[in-house]
């Protein structure tokens, strides 16, 4: 695991101190998968009295500041609390909370299509350190040349980047 500690996994599994004969692997797997960080879990019983747990965690792709509270989001829109500091994540800030955190821990909190757009924009514009999100205008960033550039939420982001770069270079040159 990269995010969950061994103690956290043991706590989530809830099998500490139980006889392996009383552990239902399917129940433990379901319990583990309730954690937003866990995408897959396998539980096996081993002789004589051992429970072996194998986890696959969601991989965070975006660090989202949702009105002051930091969340990590995986590409499918699953959100979980920030685990440590990592500067390699694309950062998105929304001034007001926009993530739908009311559902199940594994439900998407935002449209995965928007996260895909963030991924495309960050790959094609690596010089942008932080993106802003506004529900009315979508994704934007503060250009170092002195203006805010808006890209919306959908459409062909690669094409938008090419058009933006062409227009921005031309405007700046003039």
How would you describe this structure to a colleague?
The protein contains four helices and nine strands; from the N terminus they run H-H-E-E-E-E-E-E-H-E-E-E-H. The chain is of the alpha+beta class. It has a seven-stranded mixed sheet with strand order 5-4-3-6-7-8-9, with helices on one face. A two-stranded antiparallel ribbon has the order 1-2.
Task: Summarize this structure briefly.
The protein has helices at about 5-15, 25-35, 110-125, 155-174; strands spanning about 40-45, 50-55, 60-65, 70-75, 80, 90-95, 130-135, 140, 150.
Task: List its salient traits.
seven-stranded mixed β-sheet; 30% strand; two-stranded antiparallel sheet; 4 helices; alpha+beta; 174 residues
